[in-house]
User: What shape does this take?
Amino acid sequence: MRGIFEGGCDYHPGFQQIAFVSTDTGKVGERRLEHTEEAEQFYREVGKHGEVVRVGMEASGHARWFERLLHNMQFELWIGDAAEIRTKRVRKQKTDRQDAQLILQLMLENRFPRIWVPDAENRDLRQLLWHRHRLVQMRTRVMNQLHVVALNEGLRRKKALWRPEGRAELQALSLAPWAGRRRQDLLDLLDRLTPKIHELNGKLEQIVERRPVTRQLSTHPGVGPLTALAFELVIGTPERFACAKQIASYVGLAPSEESSGDRRRLGHISKQGNVLLRFLLVEAAQVTVRSDAQWRSQFFHLAMRRGRKIAKVAMARKLAVELYWMWRRGWDYRQMQQLGSHAGEPENPHGVQSITAVMIGHPAPLHRGVRTRNHDRGCDRRDGWVGLSS
Assistant: This one.
């Protein structure tokens, strides 16, 4: 029977502190390993003993090379929830040695809070989304600066400034030497960024064609290939979440809460989770509001009571919930409208009642008055957009 080598790693960009134990030799030790040569040499020596090697560490950045090293050596790497690990620390003292020892102790006691880790393909596709997003941001900054140059000279064309006629007017402006240099450099940057973004858009469309889940989510109004692909990559699999409230919390669209006793206080949204996905959901929700009458009615109703900023975030949460249920039930938007959005209406006699009975095994309870989407899905009112703060 092969022995087991378990190590708790407190990872830093320049070094790592590891506490380890070997069941085969009974060796217990601690090491501080500098990156990257000393760390590689240590783990290659460990691999020569033929043991099952298992290393645990907190979720952190700048560790991609370390993950690849352990994967190539066929070692197990456990990634843990840093916040939950922090709550298990009893002593008020905090050092790298104690952090490594705590991680090792949690692994030995089977209390290590492992988290879901995307595979290599998923991570690489996320790099595509981030790269395109950053290029678009750079292009937006360049275009805004060119707008400023034009406005300072009395030229106000808005979007028409980027048409051939508007650009010709911009280039024909008589400017001072350095102002002209600034205009020309910005135009050169714009000409270099736009083809790169178009190329990435083409690659994105090719990838979406090969991913049925992304195409399914793209049927929702306002949701394009970029938002649908980001949602699929970040969520990973819908079975990881028991209900839509967990999805809202995972993407950072759930309100923070500071309640005690009889006092309950909901604050701003937590803003935890993937920043890019949250940004795309807010942008896509605004497009959905403009294209769907029911969404527009809910948006303006909420905006009059709580303000437009909170309304935008609320609709983004609503969109995340709908995408989650579309994915989990294998529905496109048309099926979502027929079976999930209008349960109880005269033109849809089957609705969610029969679907719920099939999926859960017993009839869903009837609700008096107007049925809400959250009641149809078996969640309470807090699962919707009521009570959000921005």
